[in-house]
Amino acid sequence: MYIAPINTDSLLSEAEKETLYLKLVEQLNKDFNLANEAIDFPLNITPSELKIQLHEKVYRLIQYKFAEYLNLLYIIDVSEEEIKKLDGSDLVVLAEQVAFLILKREWQKVWFRNKYR
């Protein structure tokens, strides 16, 4: 049964445990490219480095390319309700929370695809 992870670290460790971490990285690359936000995480990227780079990318999108940021959230299909619940007063914290929501949605796609293929 799918249980949504509570934070980024638990999500990434679960992805590794289920040997779906590479699929998660591939899914991130695919969806970012679909949104025309070129990002190319190498498949050998460590979970901690992935977390940092994704956070930085989301931060830059929010700060400098807001329309593209919204398009990315739409393409990945991040819950609008969850985004609206976030406190946008601190941009760094907001970017970290959004990065987690992106990872959570991508993990959900990978997990279900693996479970029901």
What profile does the largest beta sheet have?
A: none
Beta-strand percentage? under 5%
How many angstroms does the end-to-end distance come to?
A: 15 Å
Structural class comes to mainly alpha
Radius of gyration, taken over Cα atoms and rounded to an integer in Å:
13 Å
Number of helices: 6
- What portion of residues is helical? over 70%
- Outline, from the CA principal axes? globular
Note the run of SSEs as H and E.
Answer: HHHHHH
- Chain-averaged pLDDT: 94
Indicate the low-confidence ranges by residue numbers.
none
The number of E-state strands comes to 0
Description:
The protein is mainly alpha-helical and 117 residues long. The protein is 72% helix and 0% strand. The protein has 6 helices and no strands. Helix 2 packs across helix 6 and helix 3 packs across helix 4. The model has no long low-confidence stretch (mean pLDDT 94).
How would you describe this structure in keywords?
72% helix; 6 helices; mainly alpha; 117 residues
